[in-house]
Amino acid sequence: SNVRFRHHREWQERRVWYPPFFFVRELRVAMGETMNLGQLRWRCRRGMRELDRAFVYVLNEVYPQRNAEFQAVFARFTEEQDPDILAMLSGRMEVPAPYQELVEIMRNCGAFASNAN
Predict the structure, then answer these.
(1) Element containing residue 37 per DSSP (H, E)
(2) Helices and strands (DSSP H and E) totals, the chain
(3) Bridge partners of 94?
(4) Read out DSSP for 54-92?
(5) Is pLDDT above 80 for 19?
(6) What is the pLDDT of residues 76-117, one digit of tens each?
(7) pLDDT of 40-49, one tens digit each?
(8) Which residues contact 50 (CB under 8 A, 6 or more apart)?
(9) Three-state SS at 27
(10) Residue 28, φ and ψ in degrees, nearest 5
(11) pLDDT band (50, 70, 90) for residue 62
């Protein structure tokens, strides 16, 4: 009858697998470096709405499905300055080789679409 107890019992009997708490909160980044998902989400906060939308799209939709190498590149990309990121996304600055796939995904996510009807 108690839902919490039922889920706990199923987990104990291994009928349903629930990941341990630390797997949910932490993400493995390249070379054994661990990053908290909350920290990464905070680093995705930007001063522009378009950048916010692009980063949140990648974090929610693309990041979980990609390999550790892509995740490490994304984590490094969040350390770049906003003007440089905007210049890369708008094509005013040459995109470094490691960021090319990520920048292409961010360009095509719809965050930079015009609002013209």
Answers:
(1) helix 37-43
(2) 7, 2
(3) none
(4) HHHHIIIIIGGGS-HHHHHHHHHHTTS-HHHHHHHHHTS
(5) no
(6) 999 999 999 999 999 999 999 999 999 999 999 887 765 444
(7) 888 898 888 8
(8) 111, 112
(9) strand
(10) -80, 130
(11) very high
CB–CB of 60/106 below 8 Å? no
Long-range contacts of 70-79 (CB under 8 A, 24+ apart): 70/101, 70/102, 71/27, 71/28, 71/29, 71/30, 72/29, 72/30, 72/31, 72/33, 73/98, 73/99, 73/101, 73/102, 74/102, 75/29, 75/35, 75/40, 75/43, 77/102, 78/40, 78/43, 78/44, 79/43
Closest to 26 measured CA to CA, from 46, 14, 16, 41: 41
Of the candidates 44, 36, 35, 107, the residue with the CA atom closest to the CA atom of residue 79: 44
- Which residues, at least 6 apart from 78, have a Cβ–Cβ distance to it below 8 Å? 40, 43, 44, 55
In angstroms, the CA 78 to CA 60 distance is 14
Pull the structure tokens for residue 7.
């889920």
